[in-house]
Amino acid sequence: PTNFCVGGSVTLNANTGTGNTYQWKKDNIAISGATNSSYTASESGSYSVTITIAGLSNTSLAILITESPIPTAIITPAGSTSFITGGSVVLNASTGTGYMYQWKKDNIAIIGATNASYTASAAGSYQVQIDHGLCNALSVAVVITILPTATITPAGATTFCTGGNVTLNANTGVGNTYQWKKYNIAIIGATNSSYTATATGNYSVVVTNGGLISTSSSIAISVMPLPLATITPLGATTMCSGSVGLQANVGAGLNYQWLKNNNPIAGATNALYSASSSGSYQVKITQGSCIAMSAATIVKVQSSLFASITPGGPTTFCSGGKVVLYASTCSGYNYQWKKDGVNIAGAVSSTYIASVSGKYQVRIAKNGVKDWSALLMVTVNKCKDVLKNESIGSITDSVNDPSIVSSIENFEKAAENNFEITVFPNPTNGNYIIELGAENSEESDFEIVVTNTIGQTIYHKHSIFSGKKEEIRFSENDPGGIYIVNVKTKNKIATKKIIFNK
After folding, report:
1. Are 337 and 362 in contact (CB under 8 A)?
2. DSSP calls for 109-128
3. What is the SS3 assignment for 285?
4. Is 220 helix (H, G, I), strand (E, B) or coil?
5. What is the β-pairing status of strands 297-301 and 238-239?
6. How far apart are CA 164 and CA 157, in angstroms?
7. What distance in Å separates the CA atoms of residue 57 and residue 21, rounded to the nearest whole number?
8. Burial of 200 (0-12, 13-18, 19+ CB in 10 A)
9. Could you list the pLDDT tens digit for every one of the 502 residues in the chain?
10. Of 97, 139, 310, 387, which one is least surrounded by beta carbons within 10 A?
11. CA-to-CA distance for 251 and 488, rounded, in angstroms?
């Protein structure tokens, strides 16, 4: 072919004969050294050859050679070639008169992509082929990198009971780094591709790769509190005959199952159960999908004389409150109650109502045989005057009221011989953390009860204290003021005051 691209060529052959000499010409100008019977033309021009023999010369007709330029194929991105899913970048090819275009992704032609520009929105290696006449050129590849939008996939239910959890999984990728957040606040140390959520909150994850940052939509986790499960004896739990009423706490939506010696009692599904035989009694309370088990109440039915006291409620309460104390019962028993080692005048029945602090004891006698019960401590605190207009007063009033501060300090001092907890931040605007001391590293079952200063429970749950910490959040309905945080184990308790600065 006499038409070719820059870098191409064509061989021109003259007719041959004995004694012939040759001179090739371009544009009618002799080409130096071009004296063979053939000539390789690599440039545009009008080529001819003059043949001479025996003094005679003859020049051929000229032949036109056309050398076409190769187009320039360069891609210029109009922006960053790295972006998050949903983004894009315009790729601009070099332009020229008569240019025709074909864009390619990963060496495969993109159907319909024949303009001088192409908008890339997917990861890959992009090139453009430019045709100009007989000639074409393929550009150097431009690589587009895309960071997928951060997403969260929960590995289970996002609503569960206290003590449960759910693993949240972020989308993964080579080079990704992660930061989990709760209520849009970074969770310290939560930098893996998954996070196990144990508390109520709105969780999100920030995924970073090569300077690109993508934040997921938040996912709501709801932790339902375990129901309160308590037993209040309605009489003495030690007796020689008869029965004692065991009263479970009541509330909307609660379902009951009584157990004796860890075995369910058939048909015992009411809030009140009458125990008439010796054993360890508990009540399992279900609310929705959440279950709580009460502490055991020991009932003893025995013929021998044995003095004991059964409190009919909490033995620590605010002034103005009271608790009924039940002595063990049997026909023919005689009673004498004592406080701080002194007989209480007239207190000779099987029950006594205690309304002041002291160490209480009861003596039981029958047919000349006597037995003294163990001491029972009743603590009455001055905390009732925190109420103002039937609600907790301002934070300043509460903190400056000496009787309130003193009573709460008494609670804390009473727990000093058990174990230590730390509550922070204190004061708090909503969220706070309970942290266990080192001495509790072997414990695994804790009960958390938060009350206001008149003894009303505002928060209750059982916890394993994962990482020795438990995060709690005041409700929007809780008024500002002083609250008491109690953490209990089988036979220990820790108490701290906390200020809710609403």
Report:
1. yes
2. EPTT--SSEEEE-S-EEEEE
3. strand
4. strand
5. parallel
6. 10
7. 9
8. middle
9. 999 999 899 999 999 999 999 999 999 999 999 999 999 999 999 999 999 998 899 999 999 999 988 999 999 999 999 888 889 999 999 999 999 999 999 999 999 999 999 999 999 999 999 999 889 999 999 999 888 889 999 999 999 988 899 999 999 988 899 999 999 999 999 999 999 999 889 999 999 988 889 999 999 998 888 888 889 888 889 888 888 999 998 888 899 999 999 999 999 999 999 999 999 999 999 988 899 999 999 999 988 888 899 988 888 888 888 889 999 888 889 999 999 999 999 999 999 999 999 999 999 998 888 999 999 999 988 764 433 333 333 333 333 344 344 444 444 444 444 677 888 888 888 888 888 876 665 566 788 888 886 667 888 887 777 767 888 888 777 777 888 888 887 667 788 888 887 6
10. 97
11. 23
pLDDT tens for residues 241-279? 888 999 998 888 899 999 999 999 999 999 999 999 999
Give the SS3 label for residue 27.
Answer: coil
Radius of gyration of the chain (CA): 46
CA distance 490 to 477: 31
For 282, 308, 374, the CA distances from 236, given in Å and listed in that order, are 16, 8, 14
CB 379 within 8 A of CB 358: no
Sequence-separated (6 or more) residues with CB below 8 Å from residue 45: 26, 27, 64, 65
Burial of 216: CB neighbours in 10 Å, binned 0-12, 13-18, 19+: buried
Amino acid identity, position 390: E
> In 10 A of CB 180, how many CB atoms?
23
Instruction: Report residue 397: phi and psi, to 5°.
Output: -60, -45
Q: In what order do the strands lie in the sheet with 309-311?
A: 309-311, 323-327, 351-354
Give strand pairing partners of 264: 259
- Pair 451, 484: CB distance under 8 Å: yes
CB atoms within 10 A of CB 325: 25
Strand 63-68 vs strand 3-5: parallel, antiparallel, or unpaired?
Answer: parallel
Cα 221 from Cα 473, distance rounded (Å): 14
Taking the C-alpha atoms of residue 392 and residue 385, their distance in angstroms, rounded to an integer, is 9
Say which residues have a Cβ less than 8 Å from residue 409's Cβ, sequence separation at least 6: 497
Q: Answer for the pair 338, 360: CB distance below 8 angstroms, yes or no.
A: yes
Burial class (CB in 10 A: 0-12, 13-18, 19+), 248: buried
Q: Any residues with CB less than 8 A from the CB of 206 and at least 6 apart, and which? A: 150, 178, 179, 180, 181, 213, 214, 215, 216
- Judged on CB neighbours under 10 Å (0-12, 13-18, 19+), 221 is buried
